[in-house]
Structures are given as C-alpha cells and as structure tokens.
Amino acid sequence: MDISVVIPLYNEEESLQELTNWIDRVMSDNNFTYEIIMVDDGSNDGSWEKLTELSEKNKNIKAIKFRRNYGKAAALNIGFEHSKGNVVITMDADLQDSPDEIPDLYKMIKQQGFDMVSGWKKKRHDPIRKRLPSKVYNRFTRMMTGIKLHDFNCGLKAYSSKVVKSIEVYGEMHRYIPVIAKWAGFKNIGEKVVLHQKRKHGKSKFGVGRYSGYLDLVSIAFMSRFGKKPMHFFGILGSFLFFIGFVIAAYFAYTKIFLQNYNMTERPLFYLGLLSMIIGTQLFVAGFMGEMISRSSSERNKYLVEEKIGFIKEK
Known about the structure:
By secondary structure, the protein is of the alpha/beta class. The chain folds into two domains: 3-226, Alpha-Beta Complex (Spore Coat Polysaccharide Biosynthesis Protein SpsA, Chain A), CATH 3.90.550; 231-294. The chain contains ten helices and eight strands. It has helices spanning 13-29, 47-57, 72-82, 102-110, 128-145, 161-164, 177-183, 213-226, 231-258, 268-294, and strands at residues 3-9, 34-40, 61-66, 87-90, 116-120, 157-160, 189-193, 305-309. The protein has an eight-stranded mixed β-sheet, with helices on both faces. The radius of gyration is 25 Å and the shape is elongated. The protein starts with a strand and ends in a 6-residue tail after the last strand. The mean pLDDT is 86.
C-alpha cells in the first residue's frame, strides 16, 4: 500500500464527508493505493455515526473510536500502530489542511529520501492569539533542538513507515514528533510550505493547554537522554552535591578538632554543607529508584478502544 492517512478527530461531524471525498479524489487522480484511518477521540456529537456511514460506502476508510477523550497524541499513536502504508500522512479533520498537498509530500519521502516532512503554514488563517504564541514556541524549539523547522505543530506531516513504527507518541508530545524522530535516529527531516485554509465548521479544540508546550519539550529532552538510565542524571548530580557537602563538613570537622573556641554552628556554610549532603543523598536514591522502575515499567499508552471499523480482525 502506498499511503496511510491518519486523521485524529474530536467533534468534526460536519467536516468528515467533504474531507474523505477530497482525499479520495486526490488518491484516485494520482493512482495511489491508500487507506484513511480516522481516530475518533471520544467525540460526543455524531462523528462516529458519520464515520460508520462513510466506511460502509468506501472500504478504504477505517475508523477507531476511543471510549473517552485521550488527546491528539494518543490518537496519532494508535493510528500509527494500525497503518499499513509505505508513507504515512497525518492531517487534521477540520479542513484547514489541504489533501492536495499529499502527492508532493509523498514524493519528498519516496523520491527525495526524507525520513519525515513537516508542513509549514507560512500564511495562517488564525487569530493573533494563536499565531503569536506559535512563533515564540517554534523559535524556542529550534534553539533547543537544532531542528530548522518553522512550524513544529503543523498537523500536516508525512513520514516513512519506519519512522512511525519506531517512535511512541504520548501525553501531549504530538507537538514534538520531529524532535522525537530526530532523537530516535531519523535526522533527515524536511519541510514544505503548505496551504492553510480557514476553518469551515465548528471551533478550535485547543485551549490554554497550548501555552504549556515548553514543559513537554523539557520532558522529551530529559526522557530521550536519561529515560532509560536515570541513574546517570540523578546519581551524578547527587554524588556531586554530596561531595561538596562532604568537603564542607570535613573542613568544619578539622576546625573543630584543631582550632579551639571555634563555633562552627554559627557559620551559614555549615548548614549549607549539611543541606548539600542531604539533597545529594536524596537525588542518588531517586536515581536508584528510577533505574529500578525504568527496567520494569509498562507501556505508557494505555487507552480503551470502544469500537473499530474496517480492520481485519486478528485471529
């Protein structure tokens, strides 16, 4: 199969017919073999009923329904797990991403050899309250990661199948899939200017949570370096602090023994040394416990799937 299109959605009933028709037309015009994997992230409108109807008419449309809302990252992750295409395209269900971009994205993966290609909504039809934080966030992410992309959070992206089968997306990490891919060893990341259209139906599903994106970047940075070896972070830092505290304590022990009438408890440095030893010990123990947990931890992506449509049942 040439292409899997993975589309997470939440309360997008009004857009689904037009979106699937549009994708089908693009695929037919370019003679692509394809599947559309729609992941209903706990919608409470008629989205699932609409997906059921569409799947009955077009066998290329497959759908997964979560029992409740888990977020975009979980929806993408399960879509990646079920994808069969050599190239995986992701896009939003609100018709702001254009399926007409799919052929060029496909060629960049298959012919130009990119591991993944991220869309760049150079001209955005969004209010300034969304555009301004996005610019700050993208600049900060470029500085932190060294990945030269203008729009990390663009929903329209293309991946080679080996990328989506090698990474895990959880929490709110969908904003940083290029970062996750790079730190997984997929460094050939491209960018393409894509058309961004005005929203036709409904309203944006993202609220103030978008402003906490930098916390996810810090989390990814830490997990990519120390997720499998927490002792390398906490143990080294704890040992360093304990050593500093021990040197201070040894100095005051010397003064107490060899210098008469020296009251070390009146010196703030004495208490700083004790605090340093205590914190150092706690960090060392934290690293040890983290090491034990990391070796026996279960998968992070656990979600209840209520129903699936269009997939071959496993025996």
